[in-house]
Structures are given as C-alpha cells and as structure tokens.
Amino acid sequence: ALSNLGNIAHTRGELDLAEKLYNQSLQIERQLGRLEGQANQLGNLGLIAKTRGDLDQAEKLHNESLQIERQLGRLEGQASDIGNLGLIAQTRGELDQAEKLHNESLQIERQLGRLEGQASELGNLGLIAQTRGELDRAEKLYNESLRINRQLGRLEGQAIQLGNLGVIAQTRGELDQAEELLNESLKINRQLGRLEGQANQLGNLGVIAKTRGDLDQAEKLLNESLKINRQLGRLEGQANQLGNLGVIAKTRGDLDQARSLWKQSHDLFAQASMPHMAKKVQGLIDGLDNHEK
Questions:
Q1: C-alpha to C-alpha distances, 142 to 28, 34, 63, 105, 136, nearest whole angstrom
Q2: Residues of the chain whose pLDDT is less than 70?
Q3: Measured between alpha carbons, how far is 44 from 26 in angstroms, rounded to an integer?
C-alpha cells in the first residue's frame, strides 16, 4: 500500500512524498526479510534519484536492486533495473553502453512475453537512434512502441511516444505535424496529472514557437516548463529550458541575459552529471564571448 501511494505521488511529481513512502515500504520489507519487496523499493528510490539528477545515487540503488533480483532469479525485476541503468548511461551520453543495456532488457522482456516492458525499451532505443541522428530508425522504434502501448491501452506510454514522434517531426521541419503530436501528448499528460511529461511537451512546443518566430509565445511556454521542472527538482529539465530561454534572449539581442541563462544551464547540466551537455552550452557562451571580442 505504501509503495502504491508512492507511485501515485511520483506520477504527480511529489518527489519528497514519494521518497518518504518508498523508504517506509523498504523499512517494512527489510523487517519482514522480503527480498523481492526490497528490490522493488530500491528500484523506485533509484527512479527518484534519477529524476533529481543524482545519477551516481540512482546507479547505486538500481545496482543494489539488480543484485537482489539476480539472487532471486527474478527476470522481470532484472529487466527493469537493466533498463533503468541504460537510461542513466544514456543521460550521461554513454550511448553504446546504454544501447547494450536496453537491448539486454528488451531481450528479457521478449523472453517473458511482457509487452509493457518491450514498449518501454523500444522507446528507449528510439531515443538513442534519435540522438545519433538516425531519424528513420528512431521513428520506426517509436511507432512500434506506440502501437504496443495502444494495444495495452497504456496512456502514459502513448503520451511518451507521441511526444517523441513530435520531436522527430520537429527535427525534420514538419512543424504542423510536430505541434499536433506534441499537443496530443500534452493533453494525455494533463489527463494523467503527469507533470514531467507536461514539462517536456511545453518545452518542445516552446521550441516550435521560437522556430516560427513567435518569441513571446515561446518564452511563455518555456517558462511554464521551467516552473514545473523546478517544482519537480528536475535538474536536466531546468537546464534544457534555461538553455532554450538563452536562445530567445540572444535572438532578441539581449546578450547579457543570454549569457546569464546559459551559465545557469551549464551549471545545472554539470550538477546533473551530464558533462557532454554542459560542454555544448559552454560552446554557446564561448561563441558570445568571441562575438563581443
């Protein structure tokens, strides 16, 4: 019961409450000597740590959970932890390691015939392909995941993949199609009360508004996303939106504001153990400095 209440709080973005509930559940599981329950709560606490950008702590918790799952021979739990470790590697920019872990998780999910897990891992592999610039492959993986999520009636999974497909359309310059997909995703995330998903799609819609030259609307959407990410304590999300707001400031010619926003973005990416993204933002700051010289 405590764990399920924790899941509800987590979905709503109430991370402190979720963490408290998961720790209470973990304490009882340890008191009972129930290893399966301990593994579940360690994994849940790992998800909270990842959302906050504490990747080292998240990795430690998922590895601890994975060790128990292997001891029990529990394949479903192993697949979940391996997939989450893949997400951590992905966040760090270690794409080859992430791909290896997601494929390992996918193989177990297929062995178990577990469709929900397959859908998640196909989406994760799509993100890796997208990061590498393989848009056709990413689109195929996202659509395969979306099809499974629709088959299962799983709204959260549908929202995630609609958002991912929207970003693909956006990257290709198909802005009307992108906007339609992102708004569909946003609507589902609002229906579910899923704040992280709302923040992601508001940010993506802000980038589209910026591309169209509607800077006021872009700024409004990006600030709305930033506010939610701050509420959630999501470092990566905050860093992304501060970076996007910096682009708006630069477009308006406010170089001091752009530099300030990019410095905040850089520091948050560094804090979130994402040096590859911090380096990218530093390049923007250096470009401003060189321009002024």
A1: 39, 37, 27, 17, 10
A2: 291-293
A3: 10
pLDDT computed for residue 262 by the predictor = 97
Q: Which of 108, 111, 145 is nearest to 125 (CA)?
A: 145
Q: CB neighbours of 2 closer than 8 A, spacing ≥ 6?
A: 21, 22, 24, 25, 28
Q: How many CA atoms lie within 13 A of 31 on its CB side?
A: 6
Relative orientation angle of helices 115-131 and 155-171, to the nearest 10 degrees: 20
The predicted pLDDT at position 223 comes to 98
Residue 277: CB partners within 8 Å, gap ≥ 6? 93, 239, 269
Query: Which residue type, as a one-letter code, is found at position 65?
Result: S
Question: C-alpha distances in angstroms, 189 versus 147, 156, 185, 194, 259?
Answer: 18, 7, 6, 5, 32
What is the structure's pLDDT at 128?
97
CB < 8 Å & 24+ apart, contacts of 208-213: 208/170, 208/175, 208/178, 208/179, 208/182, 210/244, 210/247, 210/248, 210/251, 211/170, 211/175, 212/175
The letter for the amino acid at 47 is: L
How far apart CA 115 and CA 95 sit, in angstroms, is 24
Structure tokens at 17: 């409450």
pLDDT score, position 292: 61
> How many angstroms separate the CA atoms of 165 and 130, rounded?
10
Helix (H/G/I), strand (E/B), else coil: 279: helix
Global pTM exceeds 0.90: no
